[in-house]
Specification:
single chain, alpha+beta, nine-stranded antiparallel beta sheet
Length: 350
Amino acid sequence: MYTKLKGICILAIAIAVEFNAPSPLRPTRECHLARHSKQLASGIWGVVDVSLESLFPNPQIRYRRRPSGCLIQQLPNGVAKIVWVEHSEVGDGLVYGANHCDPKPGEIVSPGRENVLRLPERMMRKFWANLSDSAENIWRPVPLKEAENVLAMIINAEDEEGQPPGTSIVIATTVWVLTSPRRVFDFLNNEGTRNRYIDLQWDILAYGHHVRETGYIDNGCDHGNQVSILEVKSTEDQIVVILLLEIYTTLTGSYVTFAPVEASTLDMILNGGSPENLPILPSGFSILPDGPKGNEGSSGSLVTMAFQILDIASSATYIPPDSVATTFKLVMETAECIKAAMLNPLNLGT
């Protein structure tokens, strides 16, 4: 596809894309784009998209991508600075968003540390893939009372690399809370609120145990973005499970994602082993602002939670009633704990 502008031919490619919100309760948005990329200077590239629906209107498509894209600047030591700008039209309104990322130039990454960061990157990608209403995800309603906003999905990973063999269940829901996304984010990534503070805990699976952070690596551009290792110990000081945790926040959304890992797996990665095909079952939260900020701050937050649990009793087409009931209880009790904590005066988050 060529576009002619003042006698200059510009090469652009036409692509069909699907934009997914981090919630299976929100439908995907599809559109057709023209994409143009160009090297602007030495070490600087630009990529820009625009909806073809702007030229060929389709009344059935209520989403258009106005000129959007990114600038990529090469920096020393193999890192890059990326400025990403989004400009989209949804229905009758306009939505603007931008994400400006400045890495830390000169940071030296050891092989073990680099591998530790690659595993949560895989975890986050899988979590995002699980969370969407993409056509690849076959979500089904949960046949229980008060489960109207809860969906479940079966993942059969016998032949999928990087997933534990067998069948797992992903169960998800989205709730609205009358508090700022930052306050929800700070609450969920505080190791103490998993189980230590009785009036504020949210982690049902860690109930009766002690959660302690044993190490972390700063990751990303915003202050507080990091990858952590958490130990969950019993009252007898025995390790019950080790969790890999990544917390990530920007102005447009925040994520708290975690997955159980074996101690031997962590030792192997820290000693330079590859994390690419290690089995991982991600669970976590996405936190989005619900509407623009007014005089009183954010109007609220949309919190989506999804848990992926290995279930040997399920098959590729069937979830036993006991498994449905157990996973439904997990997601609903977690949601209720979060909503109650946001109303608790002891939770003095931002």
